[in-house]
Design goal:
About 45% of the residues lie in helices and about 20% in strands. By secondary structure, the protein is of the alpha/beta class. It has a single domain (about 5-124), classed as Rossmann fold. A six-stranded mixed beta sheet has the order 3-2-1-4-5-6, with helices on both faces.
C-alpha cells in the first residue's frame, strides 16, 4: 500500500508557487506515494484556479490523488476533516496554514510543509 499524504488547499498552492518538482520532492521523502484530496479541498482549489490566471496544476494533482469520502465528515470544517483523517489514518498533511499546523502538532500528527524555495520537509 502506498504512503498517503492529505492535501490542504494552501499547501498545494504553496508547493506550486515555490515551483517545487512534486514528483522528486515527495519521492525523496516517501518513495512512491499517493495524495488524498477531500471534497472541500477540491472545491477550494477549483475556485482558486477559476479566479486566478496562475496554473496550479490541478491535472497533476488529480492524476496523483484519490478522492476520499467518509460519512461522518459531512458538515465539518475542512481543517477539522484533515485533522480527523490524519489522526485516524496516521497520514501527514501538506499545509502551510499556521493554525492547522499547530492543531496537527498538538495532536502529534505529521505535517509536510514547504520550506523556502524548492524544498519540502516532513515534520513528525
Amino acid at each position: 500500500m502506498l504512503p498517503k499524504v492529505l492535501v490542504d488547499t494552501c499547501g498545494w498552492i504553496a508547493l506550486i508557487d515555490a515551483d517545487i518538482n512534486v514528483d522528486y520532492a515527495f519521492a525523496e521523502i516517501f518513495g512512491k506515494y499517493e495524495f488524498i484530496v477531500i471534497n472541500p479541498v477540491w472545491e477550494e482549489l477549483e475556485i482558486f484556479q477559476k479566479n486566478n490566471t496562475k496554473n496550479i496544476l490541478l491535472d497533476l494533482l488529480k492524476k496523483k490523488s484519490s478522492d476520499y469520502y467518509e460519512e461522518e465528515l459531512i458538515g465539518k470544517h475542512t481543517d477539522d476533516q484533515l485533522l480527523f483523517l490524519s489522526l485516524k489514518n496516521d497520514w501527514p498533511v501538506l499545509t502551510v496554514d499556521k493554525k492547522l499546523k499547530q492543531r496537527l502538532h498538538d495532536s502529534n500528527c505529521k505535517v509536510v510543509q514547504v520550506v523556502g524555495s524548492k524544498k519540502i520537509e516532513l515534520i513528525s
